[in-house]
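Supplementary Methods, section 5.1.

A reviewer requested that the exact input to the structure prediction be made available. We therefore reproduce it here, unchanged from the version used in the analyses.
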Amino acid sequence: MEKKTVIDYTKYRIKPEQEIRDILFGMDSVVLLWCKKCFSEFTEEAIDECKRVIEIAEELNIKVIECKGIDFLCNNYHTERALKSVPDKGCIGVISCGIGIQYVSGFFNGQVKILALADSIPQSGNATSVEGYHGIALGVEKCAACGQCYLEKTGGICPVVDCAKSLLNGPCGGADKDGKCEVNRELPCAWIEIYKRLKRQGRAIGEKVDINDYNVFPVGEKGEYSKANQEKRRVGFYGGVYPLEKKEETDTIPIKVFPAPDKLTVFLSQHIGTPAVPLVKKGDLVKKGEKIGEAEGFFSSTIHSPISGKVIAIEDRTHPVSQTPQKSVIIENDGLEILDSSVEPLTDWQGLSKEDLLKRISEKGIIGLGGAMCPSSVKLNPPKSVDTLVVNGCESEPYFNADNRLMTEMPDSIMKGIEIVKKVLGVTDIIFAIEDNKSEALESVETAAKKYQGIRVEALKTKYPQGAERMLIKKTTGREVPEAGLPFDVGIVVFNVGTLYAIYRAVYEGMPLIERVVTVAGENAISAGNFIVKVGTPFSDILKHCFGINEVQPKYELRMGGPMMGFLQKDIDSAVIKGTGGILMLQKPPVDISEENICIRCGRCVDVCPMELLPYYYVYYGQKKLWNEMSEYRVNSCIECGCCQYVCSSKIDIVSLVKKGKKSVNNKS
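The structure derived from this sequence is encoded token-by-token as follows.
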């Protein structure tokens, strides 16, 4: 008799060594539990999975209190008895599939830290299954993991995988006279086979089959949920994601002034384009609002001192965006806040010409505060005529509330900024767009807008990245910016609310852009909130004031910007720039270095890309360093929003590949 091929359907695989090291790092002691596996050929005693973990723990000076193997860790009855003898102090490392890990976690109910030291392995290959996790038979048959198993009623033959139609309620009448299925003539009708087997066993099909197990997620309900997800994906614009907003920590906290630092690091590159040229030297005394950097060319911006004091150095410091050394002016604060004579309010700005207003805005160093950091004087002087101003009040990054609080507390100032921009651009239509998760800001802006003509406030459905220019324009106006074009190509200019507030201050108060509202939030904050922070404020000062620490702890990371598009900060001596909308302290993932799997071309990245690109090609060509091929798939159109990476089940750093691709492609062009 031919020996039947046995397939190993083991449901878990121990994690890579580096991941285990990262998970165990910092522990004093650990109890190890391991499942003796299932659905694998039983020819020898189970191999002790603890051995390598114990070796790693010993290398890290971690005491292993006990290593306990359990048969079928997912068996509630037996496992409960086994776990009663397990120490409930310290932490427990579990080597099993996800079912076993979840059971252990539930048993201890949060009293003990549970560490997942293995990954579940999906095994189903059945094309008709709704979802598949792991095999149930030792032969070539597959389990669809439908959660509705009733094999004892069908003689051990599963209609979900053995019937070509996955028919659950009996014969369809479509079998031919030889008992072959009408869908696939090579396959016998599963229900005829079930009938034959039950007859041999002296049993009948007569018993009613109830396939509704309400302890699992019903297939129909899952279908509705999936449909709802697809509809949400198309709300406002194609693609996008719905990350946890995490805004509740600071959304109701009023804006406060952050204490002025003893020393400021003011970078000469705070904008896209050419860095400013320093106008001061070491030893010079400067006043608050004094120009210390001159714009170099058309695409550049001036830099001003946020304080009065003394220039103690002009040197390279780690830039928070590029993470490379960039020239900066180090100023020691004298605490006197002496204003420069150039900080002069305007009593009648309406009498100024467009050119005079542009000059004033340029001289005050105003740039886009929504993230792009484009010099505002460039945006306000488009090469084509425009008819519409779109005001961006979306702020869709998680945690951020800087714009939200500005709209809530300073709506009249923002409206005055709009009036200035309206005169410069000569636009007739103004659309003020706010996401509908900012009800207080919406009400505040709607009330203020009634005092002005031509301003239409529009509430948009909350979705990331709603605040991106192209998405915003398409939703509010129906116009589509050409792939290689800019908003002015369709008669539109977009300004962030923070930028409009800065324009108001520059014109009305004569104050250059030397400070801005920044949201500070995240893990273990002792003083989270929305602060007016001086440009050049070191991150170390923010850490001390808002988190009570002098350095970033090992399990945390510091980000300038949001979790989707922010920049990881490795140097806390770097500083706030004009484009800093938030400073976040976030807990690191359980492992820093995770196993990056191959792209399986699942298409999820395509589903969520708001630019309607095919990101998986950036993975395929990027990993091979075939940059020209990435160009063919419009890599320069990517806005690096991170949606593709957010949903990637293979944990691939797609954004990093995109950045490398852009750099290579643009350097060759």
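The longest strand covers residues 309-318. These observations are discussed further in the main text.
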